[in-house]
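Aim 2 progress update. The chain analyzed this quarter is reproduced below.
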Amino acid sequence: MVMTKNSRVKITSIETLTDTWYSYQKINFDFEVTPGVWQGQKREVLERGNGATILLYNKSTQKVILTKQFRLPTYLNQNPDGHLIEACAGSLEQGEDAEFNIRREAVEETGYRPIHVEKIFDAYMSPGAVTEIISFFIAEYDSTMKVSEGGGVAHEHENIEVLELDWKQAIQMLASGEIKDAKTIMLLQYAQIHSLLG
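Predicted structure tokens:
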């Protein structure tokens, strides 16, 4: 865990509760609420590393590439079949560059190898409990960039369906609530605001 310096925060203890998949920690700290007045606080924090996501779009065909896969946490919380429609994404390996990661993930998940990848912003996705920062990218694609069928990597137990959707259909799915994944909503809204398609 990397912490920046803030004179109003004093970490007093860190206890690792579990470290099987990601690191889940209980952290005690003192926070200076007003000058000279300190308050002890406790938080449980999930340290899961950082990630990257990308929206692949085609101006000439007015299509976007999204994915569909089973997500257990959503199944446990009001998603009837547990499947989620998402933009391609992946977790960064230790010390890995976000752009390098998302280029690899694009090939593994969608089967397309984008040429010009543009980073648009970084965002904390659940800052109350998770340390993760996601780097957001966009890239144009066309049929010449297709190098495989995609679908994910078997040894990572990925079973990903590749969806090539009309832009208008994707926006309708966003409006209807069929697309509920935060990173995908953000990317589609970015595309809409910046008139990348349509």
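The first helix runs from residue 72 to 75. Helices lie at 72-75, 98-110, 167-176, 182-193. These observations will guide the mutagenesis experiments scheduled for the next reporting period.
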